[in-house]
Design brief:
The protein is α/β, with parallel strands linked by helices and about 280 residues long. About 55% of the residues lie in helices and about 15% in strands. It has an eight-stranded mixed β-sheet with strand order 3-2-1-4-5-6-7-8, with helices on both faces. It binds NADP nicotinamide-adenine-dinucleotide phosphate.
Length: about 280
């Protein structure tokens, strides 16, 4: 990664998070570019990180070996029009984090001979605790795969997909997933308050329980259902609560929720695909 020059297109939430993550991982600032229409924002980033910035995307793209598309999906078509010639000349590796923009749409916009990695990160990437699913087209070399992976690792964990179709399921699970957990946190906290706990106490108990449970599940090979069984004594409090959740069809609700998110992800990808053609 040390020898590559990276251009991040779009200095928004994801672009600046990647930038911060790369700098924190000792990536040389002099080999990092970021672009945005907002010159004030660029000035601040330049001062903060000592990186290179550009108002015009091609100024950064011409200098880079790797381009990260970090603009909103609606802006991708315009950006691709702008940078396609430069990318085609250099056969630059392009990494897209735009939700719902498929590889064929990216190839339509950039050219069929471009190595492209499509990524689906999630919001905790903003605090470098994200998880990103990645899919590479057939032109991406092993070295480029490693490079793309090391870039996305700067904001969290990475998994590779061998079938791009699975990206809609990823969007439904980890892409939208933080919202499911925020909803559960809110619901549990509210329930705790309703049972008489002070607001701040309910908040702390909820958050640390969520964090602790996630860490326990992470740090052992034991399956979640077994962990659940181990904290559920016969005739005890947890069993009483779980019975209510199971009777309320919680599992079916999650399945229906993910199916709805996946279907919407497919619809949006179709829509964005048409915009690029
Ligand atoms: N944020 C997340 O948690 C998350 C999670 C998964 C995937 N993503 C993906 O990441 C991408 C970026 O999302 P975001 O949340 O970072 O959006 P964002 O905060 O709106 O950032 C996009 C940035 O790109 C700038 N921009 C607009 N047009 C541009 C152009 N032609 N050239 C260069 N820069 C341009 C925008 O400037 P203006 O504001 O002036 O338009 C903005 O600063 C999206 O495609 C999204 O699907 C984000």
């Amino acid at each position: 990664m040390q020898t590559s020059t990276i251009a991040i297109i779009g200095a928004g939430n994801m672009g600046t998070s990647l930038l911060g993550g790369l700098i924190a991982n000792q990536f040389p600032a002099s080999q990092l570019w970021i672009t945005d229409p907002d010159s004030e924002k660029l000035h601040v980033l330049e001062q903060q990180f000592n990186i290179q910035t550009a108002l015009h995307n091609n100024d950064a793209v011409n200098a880079a070996d790797v381009i990260i598309l970090a603009v909103k999906p609606q802006m991708i078509a315009n950006v691709m029009k702008e940078i396609a010639i430069s990318v085609q000349t250099k056969k630059t590796l392009v990494i897209s984090v735009a939700a719902g923009i498929r590889i064929d749409a990216l190839q339509n916009g950039l050219g069929n001979s471009i190595p492209i990695v499509r990524c689906m990160p999630n919001t905790p990437a903003l605090i470098r605790a994200g998880v990103t699913a990645m899919y590479a087209n057939s032109l991406v070399t092993d070295k480029q795969r490693d490079l793309a992976e090391s870039i996305l690792r700067a904001v969290g964990m990475v998994v590779w997909l061998e079938d791009e179709k699975l990206m809609d399921a990823v969007t439904a699970l980890s892409g939208s997933g933080p919202a499911y957990f925020f909803l559960m946190i809110e619901a549990l906290q509210h329930a705790g308050e309703t049972l008489g706990l002070p607001r701040e106490t309910a908040r702390l108990l909820t958050l640390q329980t969520a964090l602790g449970a996630a860490r326990m599940a992470f740090e052992t090979d034991v399956e979640a259902n077994e962990l659940c069984r181990r904290v559920t004594s016969k005739g005890g409090t947890t069993e009483a609560a779980l019975r209510v959740l199971e009777n309320g069809q919680l599992r079916d609700l999650f399945l229906d929720a993910l199916k709805a998110a996946k279907a919407r992800s497919e619809e949006l990808a179709e829509l964005f695909g048409k915009e690029v053609k």
